[in-house]
Design a protein that fits this description.
single chain, 2 domains, 13 helices, binds coenzyme A, alpha+beta, globular, 6-stranded mixed beta sheet
């Protein structure tokens, strides 16, 4: 039995899937996809190609990794992104071994890799089906450069001659100032201890959540506005209409704005801006606060 089949078989238990963040509703489809691949030599060979590409990136801190820049990743076998998903399942234990080599506790390892299941959940809410269209994003977690520390996720980023902690905000509940303070403090301690060879001097964020237009549309005491206030804005890096629609409504592609809910102030802000011909932007910022 090959390493790939051993790994995939081991991934079919509820326990293994739960450890990787798969919610109960997504586990039957994950198990079915694994079983279908195990029964299909050609598919296994394809998963192996992608798994090898992911494995080759483990430990590539601060480098651009793109293991899924490969035609097989775009296959729709079993659903969007299912081959990359199986490759990630097959490699999870190698990433855990890398974490151990850096002295990273198992609970941080599990939390960090559980973004896989979170993204499968996001995929279902976006497309109404099992799959993983955000497999490109997960490449960072599975090369060993994405860590969930409290409310936020971080990866080491090299900018000019400086290492920074790039900050990401998953959809896991409110972004309270206290949770952000706690996460920043955890990140400073964690990277100092486990990645002393990459001494980070500041936090970095690139997000549609930093668009200053949000501060004009939301209440000053809202978590998003208070989060924005931490950052020294740098520049608008690009357009973010698609990000706003994806992160607030979990919609991709052409969206009929009239069909979107307007229950919250953020939903109203996003839709009304686009309806009036305005646009959202992706902004970058830095901060040194802990
Ligand atoms: C970032 C996030 C955690 C902020 O949530 P929060 O802490 O509730 O934010 P705020 O307190 O600033 O919320 C302000 C208002 O927007 C609403 N709101 C916040 N996030 C919302 C979302 N994703 N969808 C709909 N409404 C949202 C709140 O309910 C509140 O509405 P109200 O004024 O009508 O009561 C949340 O927007 C989220 O999970 N977003 C998806 C992840 C994301 O965008 N990541 C960045 C990727 S680059």
């Amino acid at each position: 039995m090959s390493l790939l089949t051993t790994r995939l078989e081991a991934a079919t238990t509820d326990r293994a899937l739960a450890a990787l963040g798969f919610r109960r509703d997504d586990r039957p489809d994950a198990k079915a996809a694994i079983a279908a691949a195990l029964a299909d030599r050609e598919r296994l060979a394809e998963v192996e190609v992608l798994a090898e590409r992911v494995r080759a990136t483990i430990g590539a801190i601060g480098e651009r990794v793109a293991p899924f820049d490969h035609p097989l990743a775009a296959s729709n076998w079993g659903g969007i992104g299912v081959l990359p998903l199986l490759a990630l399942l097959a490699v999870a234990d190698d990433v855990r071994a890398f974490h151990r080599s850096r002295g990273i506790p198992a609970f941080v390892s599990d939390r960090s890799l559980s973004d896989l299941g979170q993204q499968v959940w996001v995929h279902r809410r976006t497309y109404g089906a099992f799959g993983l269209h955000t497999y490109g994003w997960l490449a960072a977690a599975f090369c060993g450069n994405l860590y969930s520390l409290g409310r936020l996720q971080f990866n080491l980023l090299r900018r000019a001659d400086e290492w920074m902690l790039s900050t990401h905000i998953p959809e896991t509940g409110p972004l309270t100032p206290e949770s952000v303070d706690d996460s920043f403090a955890q990140a400073a301690a964690f990277f100092g201890e486990h990645f002393p060879d990459y001494p980070a001097t500041a936090f970095h964020c690139e997000s549609w959540l930093l668009d200053p237009q949000l501060a004009r549309a939301l209440a000053p005491a809202s978590n998003i506005v208070r989060f924005q206030q931490r950052w020294r804005l740098e520049e608008k890096v690009g357009p973010a209409d698609g990000d706003a629609l994806f992160f607030v409504f979990r919609r991709r592609g052409d969206v009929d704005l009239s069909t979107l809910p307007r229950t919250t102030s953020l939903q109203r802000a996003v839709v009304e801006k686009l309806e009036s011909g305005g646009h959202w932007g992706l902004w970058s910022g830095t901060c040194t606060a802990t």
